[in-house]
Each structure stands twice: as structure tokens, then as C-alpha cells.
Predict the structure.
Amino acid sequence: TTEKLKRKIKKMKDSIKTCLNYQKVLETEQSQFDQYKGAMQNIKTAENLIVLYKLYQEVYKQVTQIPFEQVNFDLYESKSEKLKEEIEKMNSAKKNPAVFTEISNSFNSFSPFSEELLLLYNGKMQERHWDRLFDECCKKGKYNNKITIHDLIEYNIVGNIGRIKKITEISLNEYKLESEFKEISTHWSEVHIPLANAQAKTEMTMILGPLDNLILEINDTSIRLHTLLNNPFINGIKADIQTLTDKMDNIIKILKAWQIFQPNWIIVSTMFQQEAIQQSISKQQTRFATVKRKYGAIVRHVLNNTRLINVCTFQSLLEDLQENSR
């Protein structure tokens, strides 16, 4: 190995130094031991080449074997920078082996695209963005999630930084919008309708808590969603935002209708529990029974899952509350 050869040659150093001193004393020159110097230089070159090759292998694996979306870009950049330094260091030598030239040429084939690759890496690119980029580069249908840095270079995808900047600007803005929408959607998926009595089990005992603050919050969210619908970067999730916007708008109507229905229901249901009143307004018994039956179904639905969005999925909820309030 190189290390063993290096140790053997170093053992000769003292002997050579002694010989050179003898030559100086005797004022003669038999040898300058150029072969020794050449051997030491070759060993140094070999050591540098080993370091260079190991770095190259690490970088080349990131370039050719690992899908771009799985590349450790911090590692790729740091190793590439070290590889560049090692290449520059060996370039100063008068003569280098052919393998160095091959490594250097290979590195130079992908190293100029660091800025473009970094834009793509940080661009929050989704499949639709990749498809658009490949389409604009006349490589329609070529994208897949196994694409490597080498493939991006071979397809000349990274050959136009202007195009990459344009598409990554779109993908980043869409990502920000989608993140905002996800935050809104996640929040409302966990909001529960307020109950004044958490132990309520029937339509006669379940009463909603105050709704004014909840309606204000929903209204604020509805305004945010309508604003998002006017955002130019909405294309990827327009249908989802529109669906949630419609739900929020409908929930406001439902809660306002419930605010009207609930006090009426409390009064009427209390009255119909009194036998004397039942007899005096017997003609309304059938109407009351219908309202009670419909509201009972609503209450069972609420108590099964009190999450607001789930509550408001009850079929014809708004219509039933409005009808029962008449």
C-alpha cells in the first residue's frame, strides 16, 4: 500500500542525508538522489489522489444514484466545495495521472449548476411544477420522482436559470398559500360546537353555549378564504379552498338560524311538558311532535360528534332549523 511504501522510503531519509553530507565534505557529487525525491512526490500525489477519489465518490453518488428529492443538499454542497479545493490543489502539480483528469472533467460537468440546483431544491416543487418545467424544456413526460441531478443535466433542465427562477417563484408562492390553507383547515377540523351542558343527552336537555364569538371567528376565516380565492397562485388547491369557503359561509347561516331556533325551542318544549297547556293547544301537538322528531335527530347527530364541521354536515340542517323556527 501507499502507506507501507511511504514508511520504507522515509527510512532511507537519514542514510541519504548522510551520503549528501559525505559528498559535501569530499567535494564530490555522485548523486542527488532524484529518484528518492521523485518517489516522495509520487507518494504525495497518490495520497492526494486517494482523498480526491473518496470525495468524488461521495459527490458522484449524490449526482447519479440518489433521486433529486432525496439528495442531502447540505452534504452535496459541502463535499463539492471540498472536492473543488482538492482539484485546485492537485492542478498546481506539474504532472497528474490520467484518473485525476477524468475526475476533474466529470466534476466540471455538474459543478457549474449549483445555483440552479439550489433553486430547485428550495423551491418546494410539486409534481405539477416539475411537469411544467420539463414541458418548457421540451422534455414533456420525462419527469418522474426518481430523477437525479445527472438526469437534470442530461435533459438540459438546469440549462436555463431564468426559467427555473420563474417556476420556483410560482411553486414557493403556492406552497405558502397551501400552508396557510392547511393551517386554517386543520384548525377548523378540531373546533367543537359549544354546549352549555356537556352532560346533555336529549333534545330536551341539549343547549348550545354562546355563539357570537364563534360566528365572528368563522366570519374572519371566511373573509381570509375569499381573499385566498383571489390569489393568483391558487390553481393547485382552488377547489379545496372553494369547498371550505362554502362550508364556512353555510356554517354561519346555520349558527345564526340556531340562535333564532334555540330560545323558541326552550320556551315551546317547556310549555308542552305541562299537561294543562298540552290540552289547551292540542291542535299544535302534531306540529310539536314533528319539530321534536326532527330536532331529536339533529341532537343525536351533534352528540355523536361535536366537531363543528361534522355537526354542520347534517343533511338539511339549515332548512330544518329555519322551518322549525316558524
